[in-house]
Amino acid sequence: MPIIELDKISKWYGSTQVLDSCSLQVERGQVVVVCGPSGSGKSTLIKTINGLEPVQQGRIVVDGVELGAGGAAALSRLRSRVGMVFQHFELFPHLSVMENLTLAQVRVLKRSLAEARERGSHYLGKVGLSSFADRFPAQLSGGQQQRVAIARALVMDPVVMLFDEPTSALDPEMVGEVLGVMATLAAEGMTMLCVTHEMGFARRVGHRVVFMDGGRILDDCPVGDFFDRPEGRPARAREFLDRILAF
């Protein structure tokens, strides 16, 4: 049974259709890279997986739970198990790093503060920031903030991690430290769906590439096929890959 299943989902903003009958299955432990031109629907697609973007048509099942089937309580439980990392970190600026990591654990998972801090310390170590627990987001670099955001998602024990262009807001020299953390998670078997233009990361870490354009999934294939067998790819995917790898 796939851990993520999207069955012919469609979405509109007013009269503008942004997702057009998209279907996708992700097996446990897979790393799926979603790519495509700007405005193709990539970010909207992954945000439907934890209900941040509701759909008007289709069916979404995550870890055996169908979105919309159990009301607000079921959606809240599901979101606690689907980690999400955004472009712009989304840390609470008035809270310390440790407070950012413990808040949802205590309020949503009902952990004691001591247990929440213990798990926070563990995952800060995992992302290489053990000594930063008492700092505030403004005292961190962009790469450090994004690693804290990843740790904040991991403390919730997610079954799936969603990444929405996690390096696009970073200076080039900071990209590697975030991609390194993501590569470690992938090697440890975390199920991951990543919207990214980092094709080197996709080739090295991903299992599959999903290519989107115009709100539709035009290609879904193994990483090796996407990069090494262009003759088998749709013309639009070949054009995109030629442009993004040109330099």
CATH architecture of the largest domain, by name, is: 3-Layer(aba) Sandwich
Largest sheet: 6 strands, mixed
Number of E-state strands: 10
Task: State the end-to-end CA separation.
Answer: 40 Å
Low-confidence stretches: none
What radius of gyration results from the CA coordinates?
18 Å
Broad CATH class of the largest domain: Alpha Beta
Count of domains: 2
- Strands side by side in the biggest sheet: 6-7-8-3-9-10
Structural class: alpha/beta
Helix fraction bin: 25-40%
Number of helices: 9
Mean pLDDT across all amino acids: 91
Q: What is the H/E order?
A: EEEHEEHEHHHEHEHEEHH
- What's the overall geometry? globular
What name does the CATH topology of the largest domain carry? Rossmann fold
Strand content: 15-25%
The CATH superfamily of the largest domain is P-loop containing nucleotide triphosphate hydrolases
Describe what you observe in this structure:
The protein has 247 residues and is α/β, with parallel strands linked by helices. It folds into 2 domains: 196 residues, Rossmann fold; 31 residues, no CATH class. Helices cover 37% and strands 25% of the residues. The strands form 2 sheets. The chain has a 6-stranded mixed β-sheet. The chain has a 4-stranded antiparallel β-sheet with strand order 2-1-4-5, with no helix packed on it.
